From TrEMBL:
Entry protein name: adenosine deaminase
Keywords (A to Z) from UniProt: Hydrolase, Metal-binding, Nucleotide metabolism, Zinc
This protein's record includes keyword Oxidoreductase: no
Cofactor dependence: Zn(2+)
EC numbers on record: 3.5.4.4
Source superkingdom: Bacteria
Residue ranges constituting the Adenosine deaminase domain according to the UniProt record: 20-366
UniProt GO cellular component terms: cytosol
Family: Belongs to the metallo-dependent hydrolases superfamily. Adenosine and AMP deaminases family.
Amino acid sequence: MPIDQHGDAVLDGVSIRSLPKVSLHDHLDGAVRPATIVELADEIGLDVPETDPGALADWFADKSDSGSLVEYLKTFDLTTAVMQTREGLTRVAREFVEDLAQDGVIYGEVRWAPEQHLARGLSLDEVVEAVQEGIEEGEDAAASAGRDIRVGQLITAMRHTDRSLEIARLAVDWRTRGAVGFDIAGPEDGFPPSQHREAFDYLASEFFPATVHAGEAAGLDSIRSALIDGRALRLGHGVRVAEDLDIVSREGEEVLVQFGDLARWVRDREITLELSPSSNLQTGAIAAWGTTLEDHPFDLLYQLGFSVTVNVDNRTMSRTSLTRELALLAETFDYGLDDLEEFQLNAAAGAFLPVEQREELIDLISEGFGD
């Protein structure tokens, strides 16, 4: 399914970009416009690999397609470097929201790690305030353009540092001012959620929701720790839960699968999987199954009844959009509009919002898909 020059694709006669969408797994420092990076870098005297925005976009795509999460994460050194001032953070957050709205997203959650943006003297509160200001500016700009969107912050701690309790307290402090949830991110293998048990205990005591990066660069033990130690309501990626599925037989379209206890728990409890197809290929998260989108266990998980959602992870690194991810899946697995709607309904149900607002989202999605 070709993506046109406007970043759109047509499925069953309908523009995918025009459909209402929900984005749950989208990193702020992974969604900076290349042109913005060039301009902000010039303002602070930072050298960049390419000064032409198009060439810089190519650089990100090339460096990110490594098959390794560790190598993939190195590209963030550049984006975070231009997000160390209040002005830079606010601009990036504003453009983040504008780009989501342009892509048809009506609700999004932006995850980012405040502790990574203190190099030029800002405090944790000041960086969160700067990002929230940008989000609200982006929402207002979208409304002026006739697009309604709401975006909440997922305050994130880096799993290889020791500030998770401090960041958890920061997230709870901002819960009525824009923060909707907590996450841990960064190098997954070797840094299990159990190392941050004190932070997760605190969040649980405050009834504050958490999603946890798990099942991407590490396997079932990481997912188990996210659920037990992190009390995760959603799994950031979580694709490797498929390692707990044993395909017993295949007969045409019929597949007989034996569930492990972990996979059954995730499926039966409707733990939301924040799957990011293009990113999962780039980081090698699906290496156990293959190297192409056809090999991704997305469709297997969907057909087995897991609560699958479609996400971009990092728009700049993967040179993608939610429209593009949906188009790629539709083309690869022969999905129709009903399938794409199901993914959005799953995302709405998993959003860190009060139930009344989730029901409103569901109604907007159903209306937008013509139900």
